[in-house]
Amino acid sequence: MIEISNASARYSGEFKNIPIEGLNLSVNSEKIVIIGPNGSGKTTILRMILGLADIVSGEVRVFGKDVRYIRNESGISTNLIEVYRLMGSSVLDAVRMYAELKGSGPDEALDLISKFGLEETLRRKIFQLSSGQQKMIGNILALSFSPSIVLLDEPFENVDQGRRIKLLNIIETIDAEIILNTHELDILKRFKKWGLYFIVEGKLLGRFDASNADRLFLNRGDIHGNLAVLETSFGKYSITKDSGQVPLSSARDLASVFEEVQ
Amino acid sequence: MIARYFISSLLKDKTLWGWGVGFMFMWLYLGAFVFGSNATSQQGWLIDASSWFSIIGLISGSLVATTISYSIYYSTSSLAYGFRYTKLKPGSYVFNLTAGASLVSAIIGCFIILFTIVLFSESSGYSIIPAMPVQALLLFFLTGIFMFLFSLITVILVNNYLGMRSSSFANFLPQLLSYIFGFSEFGSPLPPDVVYASPFSDIPRLMYMTFSGKESYLNMSDLSGPVINSYILFASLLIWISVMFVMAMALIRRIKAKSIEEGRHV
C-alpha cells in the first residue's frame, strides 16, 4: 500500500528544483498507470516512493511506514536501473546479489533473462549495456523475487516489439500492486482494468478508469461538465467524457494531444 | 555475504589491474634499473628498495581507494534503495566491503612485494628480501581497510553536503594525499607530529619498516637524522581506522541517492 499526502519533492543536488508539489496519491492493492509527457514528474513520483528523492514537505508512506525511515521491506521493487548499480557488478552477479538481498533465489530472474533472449548480457557490467538492454534487465529484476509492489518507469522505452508483447503479458498477469509510468497512450488498450492518472508539470489528475480512456477528450479552457481541470504554464485545459475537442485515443502520446488542442 | 560480489567486481576491474599493478610495476622497474642505487652493499640496496616499496605500496593503496570511491559514488541510489527495500543493512555493508577491500589490497600487495624482490634483486645482484614479509602483507590488509573507510566517508560527505562538482575531487583525494605525504619523506620532511598523526605518513613508513627491518628516518634522504617510532605510527593508524569505522557506520545510514544522470548535466 502506498499513500502520498500533500508531498513535495526535489532532486538532491545543486539544481534544487521542485518538480513535484503538494502531490496526493493512494494506491491500495491495485494496478495504476500514470501517463504524462517527458519531464512531467512521473519518475520523480517513483523516486519519492523509493526514498531516492528528497521529500521537502508532506509524507510518503509505504506499507504504512514513512519512507524516510523505512528499513528492509523487501516486498517493493522497481525497474529503475540506478538502484541495481551496487558495486558495478556484472548482470549475473547483480541477479544473484539482489536475489540474496531480497531473500529469494536467482532462478526466476535467470529464466526471464533467457525467455527474453538476453543471455549475452550476463557477463557484462550493467553500465556497459545498451539503454534497451538496461531497461529490460531493470524490468526483469523488478518483476522477479515475488514483489508485492512493483514500480515501473517507462518499461517499454527502447524495447523492441517482440519483447514488448512478452513483457506486457507478464505485467498484466503478475500478482502485485503496480504503478506504471509511460508517455504512450496507446498502451492503455492493454490495461483496461487499471486505474489511470495523467501528470503534466508535476500536477497529477485522476483517478480515471483505463477502460474509459477511449471516451476521454482534452479541451482548451475550463469546459462545463468536465471531469478535471489542469492548469499549466501554457494554459488551462479540461478533460471531458464522450465529447470534446480532441479524443485522447487519437494520439500516441499526451504531448501530441496537447499540440493538437492548441 | 555480499563481500564476494565486491571482491569479484574489484578483481575483474581492468583499470585497477592496469594502474594498481601494471603502473606500479613500471615505477619499481624505473626505481630498480633506471634511477638505480649508489649503494655498494646488500644493506644499502635493501634500504633503497624499501624506500621504493613504501611509496609504491601507499600509491597502489590510493589507487584501490580511487576505484572504490567511484564504485561507492555510482552506488548511492542502490544503497538508499537497498537499505529500505532489501535485506541489506548499513552495518553489514560496511563490514563486508571493508573485508573485501582489505583482501583485494592484500592481493595487490603480494604483487608489489614480489615485484620489489625480483626487480631489485635482479638489478643489484644481491638477494633483496623483505625483513618482515608477513607484517608487510598485513599492512596491505590494514591499508585496504583504511582506504575503503576513507573513500566511503569522503564520498558520503561530498555527495550529501558538498554537491556534485566535487565528486572527482573526492575520488582522487586519496591519491593526492598519498603523493603529498609520500614524497614529503624525501628532502623536506614534515614535522614529526604531523608524520605521526597522518595515516598517509604512517602507512609508507610502516611499509618501509616491514621491508627493511629498520625504523624509518624523519628525512629519508638523510639517514643520519632522527628516526620515527614505528609503534607510535602503528597506534596512530589503528586509531584512525577505529575513528573512521565509527564515522562510516554513522554516515552510511544517511547516504542520499544521487542521480547519475543529473550529474552528467553538470
Walk me through this protein's architecture.
- The complex is a heterodimer of chains A (262) and B (266).
- Helices cover 24% and strands 30% of the residues of chain A.
- With 262 residues, chain A is an alpha/beta fold.
- The longest helix of chain A is centred in the middle third of the chain and has 13 residues, at 131-143.
- The radius of gyration of chain A is 19 Å and the shape is globular.
- In chain A, 46% of the residues are buried.
- Chain B is mainly alpha-helical.
- Chain B is 76% helix and 0% strand.
- Chain B is built from eleven helices and no strands.
- Chain B has helices at 3-11, 14-34, 42-73, 76-85, 90-124, 133-162, 167-183, 192-197, 199-212, 230-252, 260-265.
- The longest helix of chain B has 35 residues, at 90-124.
- The model of chain B has no long low-confidence stretch (mean pLDDT 90).
- Chain A binds chain B through residues 11-15, 47, 50-54, 67, 70-78, 80, 82-90, 93, 96-98, 100-103, 127, and chain B through 2, 5-6, 8-9, 12-13, 70-71, 74-75, 77-89, 163-165, 256-263, 266.
Layout of helices and strands:
The complex is a heterodimer of chains A (262) and B (266).
Chain A: E1 2-10, E2 20-27, E3 31-35, H1 42-50, E4 54-62, E5 65-66, E6 76-78, H2 91-101, H3 107-115, H4 131-143, E7 149-153, H5 161-173, E8 177-182, E9 195-200, E10 203-209, E11 216-220, E12 228-232, E13 235-241, E14 246-247, H6 254-261
Parallel strand pairs in A: 3-8, 3-9, 6-7, 7-8
Antiparallel strand pairs in A: 1-2, 1-4, 4-5, 9-10, 11-13, 11-14, 12-13
Chain B: H1 3-11, H2 14-34, H3 42-73, H4 76-85, H5 90-124, H6 133-162, H7 167-183, H8 192-197, H9 199-212, H10 230-252, H11 260-265
Helix pairs in contact in B: 1-5, 2-3, 2-5, 3-5, 3-6, 3-7, 3-9, 5-6, 6-7, 6-9, 6-10, 9-10
